[in-house]
Write the structure tokens for this entry.
Amino acid sequence: QVQLEESGGGLVQAGGSLRLSCAASGRTFSNRGMGWFRQAPGKEREFVASINWSGGMTRYADSVKGRFTISRDNAKDTLYLHMNSLKPEDTAVYYCAADSKTYSIVVRDWAYWGQGTQVTVSS
């Protein structure tokens, strides 16, 4: 059974940092794209960042560009999201996604999803 398990969320003050991790089990995604999405209360799930299979290509939402960094360790089947200069508007449940051929920014292009981890940024 394929599982994606996020960790690292929590409560942080504005301007602070967090690192999210997503550990994959049940199969390897070392040859597939992986990504992060988030969903705030009352809003649709939105793209945050994605990375291709090798880690050599990345995409970011404009709202996080320059503050967030996505990376992966294929030897550990783990995806990361380093979040700096956090803002209250970054508050959301963050979801790990896997198995996109094109490290897409579109929700429906992803086959596997984690359960999510809450990130709350206080002002």
Summary: The CA atoms of residues 39 and 80 lie 18 Å apart. The longest strand covers residues 92-100. The two ends are 40 Å apart (CA to CA). The chain has a mean pLDDT of 96.
